[in-house]
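fwd from M.: "can u put these together and see what the complex looks like"

so here's what she sent:
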Amino acid sequence: GESVGLHLPTLSVQEGDNSIINCAYSNSASDYFIWYKQESGKGPQFIIDIRSNMDKRQGQRVTVLLNKTVKHLSLQIAATQPGDSAVYFCAENEGGGTSYGKLTFGQGTILTVHP
Amino acid sequence: NAGVTQTPKFRVLKTGQSMTLLCAQDMNHEYMYWYRQDPGMGLRLIHYSVGEGTTAKGEVPDGYNVSRLKKQNFLLGLESAAPSQTSVYFCASSWARGTNTGELFFGEGSRLTVL
């Protein structure tokens, strides 16, 4: 099956900088996208989601952008903090987010924030 | 409110042995899932359940069985463990269809090593 992938496996930033994590997807039928954060030794934690009828959605210090034309998804983290250091996964779902959470995950990007 | 709890957290098996991973959630969620996570890869769905007494296959179901006898519990069984099943296993739960099914609540993982 088609899968979701990431351009950058690692990203290092300085505290206070903005971070951008990218994700490419290949399944043109995907219509719901999610970002998860996974800290070392823990399970993934939901950050933000976006449906295909939107191109931008904002949360607290995070923004997700969706470009359906080029099948690209990005997560922007404003004023990155050391506590943001983690692995970030994008995931996609076909079926408007109603496919019982049958998510297809990307490989993940390691974000390291230096004080 | 403990969320999603997995037991055991660590286990070492010999090839051919059997074992069961237990997942319990106290959020009254309808849906529950078992994922596996391998190095350098995203999570892959093994089996899932949309309600008590029902289960279904995910992306990588071979070698695993599941049961959902009670709404709050979802068991993952390995009848005859193989080295290829060495992985970190994550249980997750979510609300029912029609809501934000991308927001899965994950446990902290069970690390299984098969020798």
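replying to her w this: The mean pLDDT of chain A is 87.
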